[in-house]
């Protein structure tokens, strides 16, 4: 009878060790982080709301505007270099935060004629955990835009028009 108690005792100890280690069966104390991905893309502010940081010098052609630093204007000054980009999971929980890169002017026009400039900001948010069916992205406080999990892993194109 003594031999039956020993295996039961060993099993009880192993079960207790597994429960204390989080159920992984490992007692090393290491944890694994969930798989993550990076959100990339661009936020573009239309010419109606874009503001060049330095005088374009009365430029009349696209070449003299291309690449000038810019930001949101006309009530959209919160869209600027360093503005916060927030990613939330399907439950609305903030899961990662990034920021806008420097705003760069991009000329627009019809039939090759320069008429105005958009302001485009690259955006990057690292460390977004996988596992949600949907995510939302918000730049500054301009409202959340929802994406399916497959779509948010492609370069995003957000527009303020």
The low-pLDDT segments are 1-28
Instruction: Give the H and E element order.
Output: HEEHEEEEEEEHE
Helical fraction equals 10-25%
Q: Whole-number radius of gyration?
A: 26 Å
| Basic shape | elongated
- What is the residue-mean pLDDT, rounded to a whole number? 79
Quaternary structure type: single chain
Overall number of strands: 10
Note the main sheet.
10 strands, mixed
The figure for the number of domains is 2
Q: Give the termini distance in whole angstroms.
A: 82 Å
**Structural class, from secondary structure content?**
alpha+beta
- Provide the β-strand percentage band: 35-45%
How large is the count of helical segments? 3
Topology:
Elements: H1 2-20, E1 36-45, E2 50-52, H2 62-65, E3 69-72, E4 84-89, E5 94-100, E6 103-108, E7 116-129, E8 134-139, E9 144-148, H3 149-152, E10 156-160
Parallel strand pairs: 1-10
Antiparallel strand pairs: 1-7, 2-3, 3-6, 4-5, 4-8, 5-7, 6-7, 8-9
